[in-house]
Amino acid sequence: MLELKNIKKQFDGNIVLDDINLKIQKGEIVSMLGPSGSGKTTLLNIILGLTQMDSGSIIFEGEDITNTSMKDRGFNIVFQDYALFPNLNAYQNIVYGLKNNSKLINKEELDGLINFLGLEDHLKKSIYKLSGGQKQRVALARTLVTKPKILLLDEPLSALDGVIKETIKNKIKDITKKYNLTTIIVTHDPEEALTMSDKVLIINKGRISQFGTPKEVINKPKNNFIKEFILSQLQIKRNNIYSLFGECYV
User: Fold this and answer.
1) Mean pLDDT value of segment 196-206
2) What is the span of the domain harbouring residue 98?
3) Which residues pair with 126 in a beta bridge?
4) Overall pTM > 0.85
5) How many domains does the chain have?
6) CB-side exposure of 64: number of CA atoms within 13 Å?
7) Where is each ABC transporter domain found (predicted)?
8) End-to-end alpha-carbon separation of the chain, Å?
9) Is residue 198 domain-resident?
10) Structural domain includes residue 17
């Protein structure tokens, strides 16, 4: 379990996160939603260890990792722009993280992962010859070969659309189930969060507005901000909500 206790963060005197308390169970997919500037990306970076909090603590599997370095936490992230190396082919990108620790994963596991993500026919391709969906799968593979304890995803579907988007969405859910991997996603799209996640965290002005299952968020919004944010600001269609969750508040 990952537990955040009383997390606070300011930048230049402006409160970005204020008293964040959260528990995420092993194997859960949790999506973070919120307006631009709400603090969700900062919170993701604090969990990763990329950004230091001003106060509070992070507990992972019973151990306080507040002052543990990003490297030693054993978490890993797929960035929004994939951050692939253009001078390396797909396979070289995938195994790049194994350069200094080739014993993390054996050949059978590596081949299984590549096949699971449907990349076996694309390994020798340059990054420039990959589609958006293929790049995203390469980025996922490169992260998963390091066997992260928690998988962090920053807007993983933002550059994709249509069938490719649905394919990657399903792959992320399959990965979480197959590896029992706790996964935390930052997304601007409420429909993504509601259809991908076990729990949804909605942040407004640095504070948690609601944390619950998709059905709880839709059927029992805790305040007017949740209603406006889900229905108006991010334009989820009423009929789509009905198709996903049946009879609901809206």
Assistant:
1) 94
2) 86-147
3) 89
4) yes
5) 1
6) 5
7) 2-230
8) 33
9) no
10) no
